[in-house]
Amino acid sequence: MAAAIRLARWHQGRTGSNPSVATLIVREIDGGPVIIGRGVTAIGGRPHAETQALAEAGEGARGATAFVTLEPCAHHGRTPPCAEALVTAGVARVVAACTDPDDRVSGRGYAILRAAGIEVCEGVLAEAAASDLAGYLARRTKNRPHVILKMAVSADGMIGAEGAGQVPITADIARRQVHSLRSVSDVIMIGSGTALADDPELTCRLPGLEGRSPIRLVLDRTLRLPVASKLARSARSVPLWLATSAQQDDPARAALASLGAEFLAAECHDGRLALPELMEDIAARGASTVLVEGGAVLATSLLDEDLVDRLILFTGAVTVGERGVDAPFALARLPDGFVPVRTMQYGPDRMDEFERQR
């Protein structure tokens, strides 16, 4: 199962509205277990992992064990559900990590298997699998994406300097790790203030992973993003969404649309975009994970609305000084309700990860 969970990560962030799931078909050969079929949800979401693994295993699947990271689907479309494909292939046993919370599946996939006489073992390494499937599970159970708030804080507790644009807080190794996080996210989100101050690209620029850049989302209530910005100028090559309350006939809207930007109509509350409703709209578009990189104001708003599921805090060795912008949180003053998950050292920089207590 651990191997299946690792395999599922290959297409994380690239399977559309479907989760990235893996299946391994295993049988005893010469007295030992051998993987004879592998499958991971295809880019775009189809075909599913089970059908790919069964096709690779062929007749060898009969009497074998299938390891699946998520309960096999049970609903009919143009193709039969994966649970029935496993029955038809003649597998003897299915070992599963997570139960699918989708009402069309939850428990029904297992029921199809058991009705056919297949042994089912549920919940194997469920917590580890659920961590990677957090986006899909959040979208199904909370009607919103899984939100990861990433922040880099200097040694003196700052996230930047006033009027200085982007201020390097971490070294190259840590910045590469951030690009790795982007590569497995559906959406990366910042506020318009960060977009104006930093003029970022928000793409994944690791060699070989450039094509895995997430959708860039800017919360831009009045459409302040300049058409000359890096985000706007690259909108045709990497998707750009603008959450705004600007009217349809706003000239800025037409100018940005001509460059390829798309718009999410957003409601306002107390002069700011309504974040819970916006998260629902993001989920409705099939996005399951949102990586937030932008600004103290947006970070604080998301935390106040209880919309953050995971915190990733990079603490750099540099000192910003007296013109610094205070970070909304740091290791010494974390938001309530988060528990530590892991700590890593990337050269001179430290990364701490926290999850909201369930």
From TrEMBL:
Its EC number is 3.5.4.26, 1.1.1.193. Zn(2+) binds at residues 48, 73, 82. The active site is at residue 50. It comes from the Bacteria. InterPro entries: APOBEC/CMP_deaminase_Zn-bd, CMP_dCMP_dom, Cytidine_deaminase-like, DHFR-like_dom_sf, Eubact_RibD, RibDG_C, Riboflavin_Biosynth_HTPR. Pathway: Cofactor biosynthesis; riboflavin biosynthesis; 5-amino-6-(D-ribitylamino)uracil from GTP: step 2/4; Cofactor biosynthesis; riboflavin biosynthesis; 5-amino-6-(D-ribitylamino)uracil from GTP: step 3/4. Its cofactor is Zn(2+). Pfam families: dCMP_cyt_deam_1, RibD_C. PROSITE patterns: CYT_DCMP_DEAMINASES_1, CYT_DCMP_DEAMINASES_2. Residues 1-120 form the CMP/dCMP-type deaminase domain. NADP(+) binds at residues 152, 194, 198, 295-301. GO terms for biological process: riboflavin biosynthetic process. GO terms for molecular function: 5-amino-6-(5-phosphoribosylamino)uracil reductase activity; diaminohydroxyphosphoribosylaminopyrimidine deaminase activity; zinc ion binding. CDD domains: Riboflavin_deaminase-reductase. Keywords: Hydrolase, Metal-binding, Multifunctional enzyme, NADP, Oxidoreductase, Riboflavin biosynthesis, Zinc. SUPFAM superfamilies: Cytidine deaminase-like, Dihydrofolate reductase-like. Converts 2,5-diamino-6-(ribosylamino)-4(3h)-pyrimidinone 5'-phosphate into 5-amino-6-(ribosylamino)-2,4(1h,3h)-pyrimidinedione 5'-phosphate. In the C-terminal section; belongs to the HTP reductase family. This is Riboflavin biosynthesis protein RibD.
